[in-house]
Amino acid sequence: MQRALLDELTAALEAGRPVVWASRPSTGEEAVLRPLDLREGEVESTRGPDAWPLDEARRALLEDRSFAVEGPAGEVFLRAYNPPVRVVVVGAVHAAQPLVRMVRTIGYRPVVVDPRTAFATAERFPATRVVTTWPAEALEMLAPDHRTAVVTLTHDPKLDDPALIAALTTPAFYVGALGSSRTHRRRVERLGNEGLSQEALARIHAPVGLDIGARTPEEIAVAILAQIVERLRRSSS
């Protein structure tokens, strides 16, 4: 790889930006692509006999895998470089503690959001980024992307609802909310009155987590993380 491209790739990885390294074995050409920075129309406009396959590069990032494709100028190998998955946990409650530990164990990056500083502390969530602003502001700052899951756990509409509204305007691959089916029906009614579409509301996984009969905070954390992994992997398979 050329030094300039290596520097570009390294800078992107350090900044947590998703990129694709592309190469044409027949000619030795190489490039670092950022297809997620482009709109669909912009991707289409870059087509040509020697153009890099940006639509396939976009698919490589969204599916988190690398592969070769055939193009007009020959075979192109695409290697996806995605940042680690982030799991934004809204609510520094009991279930959040084992969830954060498990998230970190499998190599994902947890972020805890809760303006209640008595709960959102470094002592309760060691080695974890803790954001103590209100959820809507925190989500705007964190800017969830296609590698971000958002989970609300507070049971408090003043905290959960703004977080869900903010999350549903982003490409977050998973949005989940703790609460019973009855609680979620009331939640859906409130959010619908706030202008969210049925399509957006259908993105919410609620009651959150796989239905494994979880009862304890640790079991609830297992169910939530399992559903996040399922959504991440099976939706791109």
| Number of beta strands | 10
Q: Termini distance?
A: 30 Å
On the 0 to 100 scale, the average pLDDT is: 92
Tell me the CATH topology of the largest domain. Rossmann fold
Please sum up the structure shown.
The chain is built from nine helices and ten strands. It is α/β, with parallel strands linked by helices.
Report on the structure:
The two termini are 30 Å apart. The protein has a six-stranded parallel sheet with strand order 7-6-5-8-9-10, sandwiched between helices. The protein is an alpha/beta fold. The protein is built from nine helices and ten strands.
Defining traits:
237 residues; alpha/beta; Rossmann fold; 6-stranded parallel β-sheet; 4-stranded antiparallel β-sheet; 9 helices; 10 strands; elongated
